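Same chain as my last thread, 191 residues:
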Amino acid sequence: SDAISTRGGIVPLLRRHGFKDEHMVRPTSWSTRKQEVLGMPYSVLQSRVTFPLELFGRLNNFYGRSVNPTNRLPHRKLSVDATKVLHGGYRLGLLTAESRLPEIIVAEGAIDALSLMTLGHPAAVAMIGVANQAILEALASFTGDLAIAFDIDDNQTGQSKTEKLDVSLRAAGFKGQIRNFTADFLTAHPG
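reply #2:
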């Protein structure tokens, strides 16, 4: 809505860069009388903790996690369909040879990676979706070892994805060691 969009976010930013309101107004929906309803643009990442995503050394997208626990869409990325750019992962710059890290922990999401860093594991990255071929190739190019820290889900999907990622990394030519960080962590910290 106009009230939400103009209070903060993208509209004031566009105004500061010389855009006039009449150039920003766009159709948002149709009324019950079949009339177009106009509104101001808003960011799909508004009211979200936002993380930069990178791939092969370039920032190429953003991921947002809602701060509202009742939000129907807790996770959002800028659309690959709209941008025509594959999204990267969180902190994938650590995968470069210059980092000289012996091991990187690979989490599913940015919040998971932040949690790992808070627990004393600073070399954590996040895939932001485990079926991204470009991220898989970036991980496979890493010259150190990888520790996979996927979730323990009630239906075991995180752990089955750990096994699938191990197989996919090997098929993509990864030469280092791969360990199941989650299983190792649970063994070291039972209960």
